Amino acid sequence: MNKHSGAVLVISGPSGAGKSSLISKISKDIGDFHFSISTTTRPIREGEIDGVHYHFVSKEEFIKDIENENFLEYAVVHGNYYGTSIKPVLEALHNGKMVLFDIDVQGNAIVKNRLGELITSVFVTTPSLSVLKNRLEARGTDSQEVIDKRVKMAKREVQRISEYDYLIVNDNLDEAAEKLKTIVKIAKLKHSGNEINEFVQRWEDIDE
Ligand code: ADP
Ligand code: 5GP
Question: How far is the CA of 104 from the centre of ligand 2 (A)?
């Protein structure tokens, strides 16, 4: 693996917290990165593009991918399957790119377990539950039943904020985006244990 590679940033938070808005807002300012396009069985929303926002597949295709061990992690979220394909992630890391994941709290726990110190994680949420409800309703992409499910799930997700390195309360979008940019910079500076060991070894070998 490229010596300067290995940065992985996990972004989680309730649906409607503003994760996608924040990622698209900072995307031009954070240099070269790879956004991990998840695979999902959830129905495509208006405005979404297959292969850009997600790879939309049937449940049968998803289960085949699980059996073929194609996922770094996968989870059932709000009744649909979501998973991160391992191959593009490894390729991006190999090429020294920063990898961005928008995955849920279950996914974060698995990825943290598997990639350990490569990970920096941030939890994004709204200032309150009622703001979350308003944003989901204003987004207008989900039925009331789906919104209720997501709001209920949000209450459970925020219980797990302590599993994350950073918390962003997305009240003002510009301010939240600045915070996320800072976290990206920090994630890029974080070196894996192997790189640090190599550095210490080289440092000790250098004679004055
Ligand atoms: P997520 O990706 O976390 O599900 P989105 O990025 O789709 O969330 O944001 C949910 C809705 O809230 C969208 O309609 C978006 O335009 C809006 N939104 C995002 N951030 C803010 C903010 N800081 N203030 C007001 N509305 C916001
Ligand atoms: P949405 O349906 O609103 O796009 O996403 C719903 C939830 O699924 C969000 O919390 C999002 O972070 C999460 N999610 C998206 N892709 C993945 C994935 O590949 N793995 C996991 N574990 N969660 C994901």
Answer: 5
